[in-house]
Amino acid sequence: MILVNTEMIPGYRVLETKGLVQGNTIRAKHLGRDIAAGLKNLVGGELKGYTELLTESRRQAIERMIGQAQQLGANAVVNVRFTTSAVTQGAAELYAYGTAMVVEEERV
After folding, report:
1. Residue 67 is part of which domain span?
2. Structurally, how many domains does the chain consist of?
3. Residue-wise pLDDT tens digits, 21-41
4. Which end of the chain is more exposed for a tag (fewer CB within 10 A), N or C?
């Protein structure tokens, strides 16, 4: 599966546009991570627990988006974007979306 955040894929031509595909996950904060983050706020630096949480959330949202694209018979997703939103206090949604397409490599 080809994933790009551009509207087209250089060297490929579009055979068919399948439509919007999406994947999301909603994650809640972990008490242990909150305590560690609070301590880290005192001295500064990366909040590694939250970095790991968001990295895993992005991976899962992408996997779900790819799964939807594959069900439509696509082999590429273009114009991939991410967004987040607060669902409730302590929980947030990470949402990935793009346009599923069937593409083929251009022959030179």
Report:
1. 2-105
2. 1
3. 999 999 886 655 555 545 555
4. C
